[in-house]
Amino acid sequence: MIRLLVGLGNPGPEYEDTRHNVGFWWVDAAARALGTRLVPERAYQGLVARVNRPDGPLWLLEPQTYMNLSGRSVAALARFFKIEPGQILVVHDELDLPPGQMKIKQGGGVAGHNGLKDIQAQLGSADFWRLRIGIGHPGDRAEVANWVLRKPAPGQREAMLACLDRSLQALPQLLEGPTAPALAAIHARPAAPGAQGARPPKPKGTAAGAGAAARPDTGVGTAAIHATTSAAEPDAKEGPT
Fold this sequence. Notes:
Shape: globular
Radius of gyration: 16 Å
Number of strands: 7
Strand content: 15-25%
């Protein structure tokens, strides 16, 4: 059972429509579909909502720490409410998938994503679930930071929003497991023709974090909705990637 939905991004209007903020877009849409509203909570360094369900409360969270310190927000809320890593679903942008594609998995590596890296460090576990929303790759490792902090082209944005819509339709099933039917729904459809970004070069480069920005209106309205690392260093500087 999922008890905490986390969207990764960066706070501030300068980031709100960027590729890096697709996790925020997803949680905003989930909040609307669930009939709740995110509000600032200083104790958890983020925007937070609570939904009361028959099997217990569901929390929604958008860390406001900037991408590379996302784990501070996630760990603070998870520890206070005794939420296990396996009960957390983190939604983030994925360079290794083109716009229009998404994948979900539990555990694994962070592929250079600084938001995931900090969450893993702060939780002391990699066993949280990840919903990876494709944003494509610029084709040049040196351009990754600029790519994730820019707005997608209209066709790419449309493909990304289609992923949000499809995944949120599977939200009831995702909250139960995620179960096999939910995974099938997430992985079902290919990317829209012409919407893909460049495929990542081989070998893979270091990806800069994922997500960014305030909370744009995504236009999504149909939703019915493993290894341990050391803790983050105390003098870490916040940054958008």
